[in-house]
Amino acid sequence: MTYAIAQAAERSGLSIDTLRYYERIGLVEPPARDSGGRRSYTDDDLAWLEFLTKLRTTGMPIRMMREYAQLRGPGAEARRMQILTDHRTDVLARIGELQSSLEALNYKIGHYCTSVQLQEATA
Q1: Keyword DNA-binding: yes or no (predicted)?
Q2: Distance of CA 66 to the CA centre of its chain
C-alpha cells in the first residue's frame, strides 16, 4: 500500500514539514514519486518512521540517528548494534533518574496528603 505525504504524516504522527526535513537531512530515503511527482510512502517507509520516532522519544540526538540511518544495509550491522547498545545504556540511566525523581514526588505528595488530612480532621 502507498500513502501520500499527508497520509504518511497522519499515520506516523509526524508533521509534513518533519517528513520533508527527515528526507532533506538523510534520515529517510527519498520516497518514490507518483505519476504527478508527489511523494508516495510505503508501509516499510512508515515502519522506518515509527522506529525513528522511538529513537527521538528516547532522546537519541539527530546526529546519531543520521549516522544510524546512513548505515542501513548489509555490512554495517556491528556499528548499528553499537549505536543502539550505547543508546540503550543512556536510556536506562535516564529511566533510573526518572524513577528516583518519581519516588521524591510520591514522597512529597504523601507528606502533603497527610498534612491535608490532619488539617481536615482538626477543622
Answers
A1: yes
A2: 14
The residue extents of the domains of the chain are: 1-70, 77-123
- Helices within 1-123 (DSSP H only): 5-12, 16-24, 43-57, 62-70, 77-122
Q: What are phi and psi of 33, to 5 degrees?
A: -115, 145
Say whether pLDDT at 120 is over 90: no
- Return the C-alpha cell found at 35: 505519476
**Cell numbers at residue 50, please?**
515509527
SS3 37: coil
Q: Which of the following CATH numbers is that of domain 1-70: 1.20.1440.130, 1.10.1660.10, 1.10.3380.30, 3.40.50.20? A: 1.10.1660.10
Q: What is the pLDDT of residues 9-55, one digit of tens each?
A: 999 999 999 999 999 999 999 999 989 999 999 999 999 999 999 99
To the question of pTM greater than 0.85 for the whole model, the response is no
